[in-house]
Amino acid sequence: MNTRTQTTDFTPVDQDLYAKAFQFLDPDPTPEPAAPAAHAAPAQVPLTTATPVRLTGPVEKTLTDALALLDTHGWARYSLVHSEGARCSIGALRAAAGSRNAAYRDAGNLLLDEARRQHGKKWETIPSWNDSHTGAQVRSVWEAAIRRAHHMNI
Length: 154
What we know:
Layout: H1 15-25, H2 58-73, H3 89-97, H4 102-119, H5 126-131, H6 135-152
Helix pairs in contact: 2-3, 2-4, 2-6, 3-4, 4-6
């Protein structure tokens, strides 16, 4: 039913101008799905869904990048950065973080906490712990800290 009144105070809308205005607002509109035919079979919907993408948190990324530096350049004791490029744990953390930011601080705290879990509560700093253990022991702590950061989603 189309009802019109004889007297109106509205200005008629120019449909072409109206369409152009919406084209400027949404230059590439997504086409509307076509209406299904009366006898068409329902669309098949897959039962599987894509695995959600998990973003790496800043602490996990800092720890992972630092361990990659240790793997690439070597691990050192008693020196922040050895003359041949090897680094101690704190040197690797600093290089991976880029600055002493929140990710650097939190990654260091998590690493030291894991070192205390594995090697006793007496360790007060990362350098003192790093310099008192073997490469295998240090790596074990790094790997556990990365797993914890992953599970904590930080």
